[in-house]
From TrEMBL:
Monomer. One of its GO terms (cellular component) is cytoplasm. Mg(2+) binds at residues 173, 193. It comes from Buchnera aphidicola. SUPFAM superfamilies: Obg GTP-binding protein N-terminal domain, P-loop containing nucleoside triphosphate hydrolases. Keywords: Cytoplasm, GTP-binding, Hydrolase, Magnesium, Metal-binding, Nucleotide-binding. Its cofactor is Mg(2+). PROSITE patterns: G_OBG, GTP1_OBG, OBG. This is GTPase Obg. Its EC number is 3.6.5.-. HAMAP family: GTPase_Obg (MF_01454).
Amino acid sequence: MKFVDSVVIHVSAGNGGHGCTSFRREKFIPKGGPDGGDGGNGGNIWIISDLNMNSLTDYRIKKIFHAENGQNGFKKNSSGKKGEDKYIRVPLGTRIIDIETNEIVADIQYKNQKILVAKGGWHGLGNTRFKSSTNRTPKKNTKGSLGENKLISLELLLIADVGTLGFPNSGKSTLTSMMSNAKTKIDSYPFTTLHPVLGTVKKKKKNFIIADIPGIIQGASSGVGLGIKFLKHLSRCKLLLHIIDINTIKKKNLNKIRYIILQELKNFNKSLFQIPRWLIFNKIDILTKKNVNKIKKYIKRKIHPCQKCYFISAKDNIGIKNLSKDIIRYLYKKNNIHKYF
């Protein structure tokens, strides 16, 4: 199924029902007073978060949403029924934007969060409302008002505590699947991952969400490859894991490999560049122990002493347990954990 993270929808709240003009006509009461009831309010349109959704795919085709109109009033002072509200379910991380004003209406970040996006019309008044000491037989009633009509943009920015980034085939998807419950597609060809995948990592009573996005290549921030489309999904992360295939360091300079990714982050969004990053050197299973130790010494000479780095094999589950523990310790110590579980 195609991953959709941006749609425009039209929402139309219900109109208010009209008030009724009516007079009592009962036996032995020849001059009954007014008994016209009010109309019902129009239905509202709400957007509500749904933990079971992870994309806006449902709205790729269905883009128009109507709430029910309020009923007109009846005789015998009977009010019309209120129109039923319409609920539009979206995944956590959805940003709601009013296209006409370009205003951000809301940012959906919590479970069961409910946002009113179009208010139903107000009910009209029946002629009973206009009875007075000077007007015993009012024929006046009022019409219900129109419900709001709006064009709404829904933009999904996935909510994750930790995000992975790196070149294609660096092992991001393998790491995500080993650490979490994510079911990511894994293969040896570039861009195996075609859309972001979320997974939940659980350690005893603590947990966090990790996001795997398609690989980034040089020029991603200007539209090359798949990275530009999905870099925005890292913007809510509190920590980024920069995955590097340790075997590529033999062929390329380490700083050059790091610089390409960092420059793409900076070009795309400076705030994304400022998110803390840990270096994760993957695929140590391919090297001999002697070569691993040799490369470790080289790497530690090249990076800043304060830079956190890990040496792992995602495929063989080497170093994953310690990495997960350190991530949980970091997130909970900083209180940088999403509280919607």
